């Protein structure tokens, strides 16, 4: 297979393909983001990488590439909630609309397409245009909402995927498109803010707390500890949450232990912002979490801090986030890429295991 990749973070897609065990060659990777391109080049020095926007590529250039599959992850900011029709007028959607416009005019249609986007895309008008174009071009397709939890990875990341292939049957008897929602895992923040007193010792509802307990008891999901770096070998000091952060956000942190079978979605703000950007890890197991949070709001600042420090809370390292995202060990960030940038790239990334499974489904 010859592939072409275009999206805002190519680095990820190529690796998915290698991981899925499908013999394939990437004919070109396209991205305009300098950081993403640096990482990509470092890992795949021999793959042609175009530092361009999609709109900057002509029909002629696309035709010359002669590809069988296109993998794309168009900018997702515009696709948010039901009813918002602004999505296709948002300038960030331009590259996506350009691809849709180009597709029917290609000399040879790619046999396969995989598209990823955020939850909410399924109700956007951009999705409606995509479906129309695919149908007109004679593709059959399937839409899937999936989170890594449903493939046994202890991390929530609910995403929309569309996989399409050229229909070899009579176009008139095409199977209707089908939306399949599989093991939906709610990505909404795992904590709620309350006015006045809270339900439990942390700022979360009973329902949320129960859900966490339920998730942690699902034995078909792996434990967090399988994704951690060897604690003896790596200095975790730089990842500890600073006192200021503990005091300010202690009650809204999503804390997981190495034995947990869940964590919340890591976003590109991880390591910089605390609330809703991803889970933090409790490193000191001797301290019971209840003993820290019980009556914490009545403590003086000093005592609050002393209590919270006992848990030894830290961020997951970029390597560990990459592990949870399914990246193989040989993915390397060049040394000059700062930690914060690494989190940002990972936060914009896709789960490799999920994509690999979808590609297998697509080409099988
Ligand atoms: C590239 O992407 C990273 C991660 O999303 C982002 O922080 C950075 O600002 C982007 N840089 C450019 C030049 O677009
Ligand atoms: C890629 O293109 C951008 C914008 O055109 C430019 O700023 C950047 O220097 C280019 N990067 C490389 C590595 O050529
Ligand atoms: C447990 O996890 C598996 C695999 O991730 C999933 O298919 C199953 O639905 C989960 N069971 C429950 C009760 O949530």
TrEMBL record:
Stretch forming the signal peptide: 1-20
Keyword Chloroplast set for record: no
Catalytic site: 76
One of the Pfam families matching this protein, by short name: DNA_methylase
Enzyme class: transferase
Annotated keywords: Methyltransferase, S-adenosyl-L-methionine, Signal, Transferase
Name recorded for this polypeptide: tRNA (cytosine(38)-C(5))-methyltransferase
Originating species: Astatotilapia calliptera (Eastern happy)
Organism ancestry: Eukaryota, Metazoa, Chordata, Craniata, Vertebrata
């Amino acid at each position: 297979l010859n592939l072409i990749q275009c999206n805002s973070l190519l680095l990820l897609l190529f690796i998915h393909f290698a991981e899925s065990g499908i013999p394939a060659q990437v004919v070109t990777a396209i991205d305009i983001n300098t950081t993403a391109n640096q990482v990509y080049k470092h890992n795949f020095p021999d793959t042609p990488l175009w530092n361009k926007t999609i709109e900057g590529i002509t029909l002629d250039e696309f035709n010359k590439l002669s590809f069988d599959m296109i993998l794309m992850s168009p900018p997702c900011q515009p696709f948010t909630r039901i009813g918002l029709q602004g999505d296709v007028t948002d300038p960030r959607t331009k590259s996506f609309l350009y691809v849709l416009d180009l597709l029917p005019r290609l000399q040879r249609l790619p046999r396969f397409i995989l598209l990823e986007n955020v939850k909410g895309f399924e109700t956007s008008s951009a999705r409606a245009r995509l479906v129309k174009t695919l149908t007109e071009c004679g593709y059959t397709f399937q839409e899937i909402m999936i989170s890594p939890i449903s493939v046994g990875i202890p991390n929530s990341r609910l995403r929309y995927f569309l996989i399409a292939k050229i229909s070899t049957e009579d176009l008139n008897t095409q199977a209707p498109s089908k939306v399949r929602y599989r093991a939906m895992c709610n990505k909404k923040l795992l904590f709620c803010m309350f006015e006045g007193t809270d339900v439990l010792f942390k700022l979360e509802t009973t329902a949320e707390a129960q859900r966490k307990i339920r998730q942690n008891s699902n034995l078909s999901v792996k434990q967090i500890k399988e994704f951690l770096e060897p604690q003896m070998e790596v200095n975790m000091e730089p990842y500890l949450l600073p006192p200021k952060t503990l005091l300010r956000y202690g009650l809204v942190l999503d804390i997981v232990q190495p034995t947990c079978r869940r964590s919340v979605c890591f976003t590109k703000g991880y390591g910089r912002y605390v609330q809703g950007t991803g889970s933090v890890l409790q490193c000191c197991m001797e301290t019971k979490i209840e003993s820290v949070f019980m009556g914490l709001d009545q403590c003086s600042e000093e005592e609050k801090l002393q209590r919270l420090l006992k848990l030894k809370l830290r961020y997951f390292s970029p390597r560990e986030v990459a592990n949870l995202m399914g990246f193989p060990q040989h993915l390397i960030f060049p040394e000059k890429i700062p930690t914060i940038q690494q989190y940002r790239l990972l936060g914009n990334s896709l789960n490799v295991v999920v994509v690999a499974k979808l590609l297998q489904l697509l080409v099988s």
